[in-house]
Design brief:
Elements (H helix, E strand, L loop, with lengths): L1 H16 L3 H5 L1 E4 L5 E8 L3 E8 L4 E10 L3 E8 L4 E10 L2 E8 L3 E8 L5
């Protein structure tokens, strides 16, 4: 049990202190300002994948990467049903995920990470 606890603490410490943007971005994220969640995946060969969905609206929206910088990822999100298109710039500031929206909405929102535990 002590070894398991130690491994969990070490894994958490590595995840928090990682300097790679892809390591910081990986995970499930949301904001209090929307019912949508975004899951960010990264694979060395495939690159980034953004999965944007809402349980409340029972929808998923396509979000594609349009630009990768050293400290940010820029995506394009489209909601055809609402005739809505926005660019989102994801970056880390002071250890938090900041999402800067430009287009159909212009604002910056801080997202929080959700930890998913499985058996």
């Amino acid at each position: 049990m002590k070894k398991l606890l130690l491994c969990i603490v070490m894994l958490f410490s590595i995840a928090i202190n990682s300097t790679e943007l892809s390591d910081k971005l990986r995970g499930a994220w949301s904001s209090d300002k929307t019912s949508y969640y975004v899951v960010i995946l990264h694979d060395e060969k495939k690159g980034y994948e953004f999965i944007n969905f809402s349980f409340a609206e029972n929808k998923s929206l396509p979000e594609t990467v349009v630009e990768e910088g050293e400290n940010y990822i820029k995506t394009k999100l489209i909601n055809k049903e609402k005739n809505y298109e926005v660019f989102i710039k994801y970056s880390f500031v002071d250890g938090k995920l900041h999402c800067q929206f430009e287009g159909g909405s212009n604002h910056t929102t801080v997202y929080k990470r959700h930890w998913i535990l499985t058996n």
